[in-house]
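In these records, each integer encodes one residue's backbone shape. Here is one protein:

___
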Amino acid sequence: MTNIFIDGSAGTTGLRIYDRLSARDDISLIKLPEELRKDDNARAQAINSADIVFLCLPDDAARQAVTFVKNDKTAIIDTSTAHRTNNDWIYGFPELTGIREQIINSKRIANPGCHASGFIALVKPLVEAGVLDANMALSCFSLTGYSGGGKKMIADYEHADKSALLKAPRQYGLTQQHKHLKEMQVITGIETAPAFCPIVADFYSGMEVTVTLFKHDIKANIGDIKAIYKNYYTGRLVHLDDEADEGGFLSAAALSGKDDMQLCVFGNEDRIILVARYDNLGKGASGAAIQNMNILMGVDETTGLIY
């Protein structure tokens, strides 16, 4: 039996992980009473009693929680931004070259950011294949459901008298300082962070990340890119889909409630559109965290996941 502790189980990601793990019979959840949920001594004891700990906390609190570990047994899966580009941590996207093998032997795993997951899935294989030069300037826009904004944003969008402004898509990250940009650059190996336009809209969950390319900037055509994705992603949770087309439209909510990621390549030989679709709470958050937990446990990595 694997002992699991979720530090920050009251947040959106923590609650989702807790709900999904509660039904499993191969783990034991360590729980703190409500009055001790923020007590450092109680948290430290729980962390050191666990085989695997999920940190679902703000960055500074996540860094503090890591200092509580006083043994070489406890593995940490951090869902915050705090450690994603830290060389002492493994970036927890198992489908990337060599990462799954590193996760198996690691005690420190940084769960990817939701927007970053789609960008990295689309760009990393093309950089590795030499289709994209590392010095190429890229742009990306990403549509997301409002659940990614946490409890306050969920409450704002679900309020009976919500502002009319919330009924239309809203762009944010306007200063180009979004917290996912650093990992988008570092993990893909590109020299410059992309111009990134995240957009939140009035639907609960789902994500659609798009990267656009021009023929004169790349060393491949549409068929080449599809072949690269097909050969690179051979598992069950990230996959190329040649038939994703809803009558000329592509919904950002198509994979809501699921834990896999669908990659699509559209356009023509002059202008190519790369799209990753998934659930911001699935492969973009709790689903990815549980996949990493499964790998650490040595069980099928899709255990408990929906795809």
